[in-house]
Amino acid sequence: YRDKLIGVPSSYAVFGVNSAAAMFTRDFIEKQPYKDFFDETMFMYLEDVDVAMRSVMMGYKNYCVKDTFAYHMGSASSKNNRTFPAYMTFRNNTGLLFKNVPITILIKLFPRIIHSDRQRIKHLKALNRKDEARSVLKGRLVGLLYIPIFILKRMKLRPFRDVDKKYLWSIMKKGY
């Protein structure tokens, strides 16, 4: 990984970073509109992406600093259970999008989300991981039931939103 960074500036803009390796400015922490900095509705999986997306929505920039490293035991809390992370990731992804993303971009992403979910489920079934495929589908469906909760949170974020939609679409369209 370090070799890939040769010639890269000492820091460069990124969408966001894993919260295990993140530092947040006091200004952002104090200005963001929620009491629970990491959304307790999300519990685990994508709660750090939610914070990164919130910062982008509020006009903040996120940076990666060259030659810094952090070690994160990904999914260690799940104890090698594949179904729980799949369920939580797809459930929380729905909330993350409805909470943060402008409606015009959400509408553009919708066909890509459906296609991506179908491909993921098809891939998991081909690997004979049908329980994980069911968890993906269940997570997405339960996430849809959570939409009213996230719409309330969305309304709380709206006055703080300060992002150019063209810039946001340019980084969002790569994700699906």
Short description:
With 176 residues, the chain is mainly alpha-helical.
Give a description of the structure.
The protein has helices spanning 26-31, 47-57, 83-100, 103-126, 130-145, 147-157, 165-172; strands at 11-14, 62-65. It is mainly α. The protein starts with 10 loop residues before the first strand and ends with a helix. The chain contains 7 helices and 2 strands. Helices cover 53% and strands 5% of the residues. A two-stranded antiparallel ribbon has the order 1-2. Mean pLDDT is 87; it is low at 1-5.
Which stretches are poorly predicted, pLDDT < 50 over at least 5 residues?
1-5
Spatial gap, N to C terminus: 24 Å
The secondary-structure class comes to: mainly alpha
Strand/helix succession: EHHEHHHHH
Q: Which strand order does the major sheet show?
A: 1-2
> What is the alpha-carbon Rg in Å?
17 Å
Helix content: 40-55%
Q: What is the 3D form? A: globular
Number of strands: 2
Biggest sheet record: 2 strands, antiparallel
> What fraction strand?
under 5%
Give the count of helical stretches: 7
Q: Give the averaged pLDDT, no decimals.
A: 87
Lay out the secondary structure.
Layout: E1 11-14, H1 26-31, H2 47-57, E2 62-65, H3 83-100, H4 103-126, H5 130-145, H6 147-157, H7 165-172
Antiparallel strand pairs: 1-2
Helix pairs in contact: 3-5, 3-6, 4-5
Feature tags:
176 residues, single chain, mainly alpha, disordered N terminus, two-stranded antiparallel sheet
